[in-house]
Amino acid sequence: MKYSALSILREGLRGHKGWKPMWRDPKPKSHYDVIIIGGGGHGLATAYYLAKEHNITNVAVLEKGWIGGGNVGRNTTIIRSNYLHPANTHFYEKSMKLWEGLERDFNFNAMVSQRGVINLFHSDPQRDAFARRGNAMRIAGVDAELLSPEQLRQQVPILDFDNARFPIKGGLLQKRGGTVRHDAVAWGYARGADSRGVDIIQNCEVKDIIVEGGKVVGVETSKGQIKANKIGMAVAGHTSQVAQMAGIKLPIESHVLQAFVSEGIKPFLDTVVTFGAGHFYISQSDKGGLVFGGDLDGYNTYAQRGNLPMMEHVMAGGMAIMPAIGRVRLLRHWGGIMDMSFDGSPFICKTGIDHLYLNGGWCYGGFKATPASGWCFAHTIAKDQPHKLNEKFTIERFRDGKMIDEKGVGPNPWIQ
Amino acid sequence: MHQINCPWCGKRDEAEFQYQGDASVKRPEPDASQDEFFNYVYMRDNPRGWHTEWWHHIGGCRQWVKVVRNTITHEIHSTGGPQDELKLPKANVK
Q1: Which of A14, A122, A320, A323 shows the smallest number of beta carbons within 10 Å?
Q2: Residues from chain A contacting residue B73 (CB–CB below 8 Å)
Q3: CB A297 within 8 A of CB A256
Q4: Reported confidence tier of residue A305, pLDDT bands at 50, 70, 90
């Protein structure tokens, strides 16, 4: 069923009794052309683009829990493409362009809102660094604007401009950045993939990856053995465990990143503000809640919850730059497990095993990458070779000294 | 919140420490191959379960403390100095 104003009107008149489930609940077949392990945003997007761009529809997405129950529903919904290194800039800009046409493309309201993303700076050297990044973005065809304190005051008057430790000297704005309704991204891709023939199989845990003669041939799951010509892993957070099933060790550590939502308040902030120096960023959801977060807790963990010292640190950062939020009550907070790679950049690549493909290492940039990640991973699987946009996101880049170290902090995932 | 038993200072809150990563990796000999150094710098087991790791007591005695901690439950099994060989309590949870 195609969604439109007309379909809403028709169902409204019929008491909303005609809506159908958005995807089927099929039993797994014994063989598929492609299996995607992981029914998160990236896995579902991959299946969608395999069907749509490459006409490969005999595809299964295997999900241990339920779709949209992992990091695609645990992030702070921000999209942006304000990167410095060319490999990242072009890849994330592809993602931004796909976001811009996504709702029409998959006929689902994902509430893409290009409300802008502003990175604050506090000193002359930091202004130089941000100007450099903005220029690199513009050379690559991405929009970027350096805001003066006066321009910033007009846009975000509630900031503490005269903060003693971090006086605000301006900001780097990407107008096309913004937020997206994250659950709708999972549902939209799932519906789009399912309608093209992809089987989405939930509550199906992959227990083992079967490799014969250096080539992957199938998986053992909680619903039995399923054979496949090609298999893609898209399980960021637990990539090390799934790759281990095929005997692959990776430059990845798993860390927890916390996020917070306040009670709903009246319109207060109509853009996204990041205060990198104080490890804090914030936006306001359409429901009115302030959505904010900071940095990693900073130790290896698979627990989807954080600890109090980082909570306190994030709140302190918020109070420093936006004191007006001090009386707002916290509604909920949670943690998501990040695949932290050793240079802060992802993997979309082939592995040492034929027809087994890797998508992971998203650090905390996974959500905004969802469309381009699926698009590039589908290309890599369909053609058995990477697209130009993801050819640098390999495992070998570390061995070859070709890291894409956006932050320049070296091989320490917990401070990426 | 983690409470880490520093062998020099006693039990202290995690906020006094800076995490310093996997303590099970060993620096290869200087004449080791590129691959061995690659593995040492970049490749990690990243276990779900017991993990041997470094916590630097920067807000205290500034010693490096070796800690065996569970990455699912955050339970700390044992701590020791850099030279101590700490045993993992049981097989890693898959």
Answers
A1: A14
A2: 303
A3: yes
A4: confident
A253, B22: Cβ pair inside 8 Å?
yes
Contact B42 A251 (CB under 8 A): yes
- Find the distance separating the first CA and the last CA of chain B, reported in whole Å: 24
List all residues of chain A from 197 to 216 with a beta carbon under 8 Å from chain B.
Answer: none
CA geometry: angle A258, A260, A261, nearest 5 deg: 160
Q: What residues contact A292, with CB distance under 8 A and at least 6 apart?
A: A76, A259, A260, A261, A262, A280, A281, A282, A283, A314, A318
| ipTM here | 0.94
- Sheet arrangement for strand B50-56: B18-22, B50-56, B64-70, B76-80
Asked whether the predicted pLDDT for residue A92 surpasses 80, the reply is yes
Place of tokens 């940095």: A295
The phi, psi pair for A71, rounded to 5°, reads -70, -20
- Note whether A399 contacts B: Cβ–Cβ < 8 A: yes
Q: How confident is the model at residue B92 (pLDDT cuts 50, 70, 90)?
A: low
Q: If 0-12 CB within 10 Å is exposed, 13-18 middle and 19+ buried, where does residue A60 land?
A: buried
Quote the CA–CA distance of A361 and A369 in Å, as a whole number: 12
Judge whether A186 and A108 are in contact, CB under 8 Å. Answer: no
Asked if residues A217 and A155 have their Cβ atoms less than 8 Å apart, the reply is no
Percent of chain A at pLDDT exceeding 90:
96
Min Cα–Cα distance to chain B from A71, Å: 17
Residues of B in contact with A342 (CB under 8 A): 41-42
Whole-number average pLDDT of chain B: 94
Provide the chain A residues 66-125 that lie in CB contact (below 8 A) with chain B: none
This prediction's pTM: 0.96
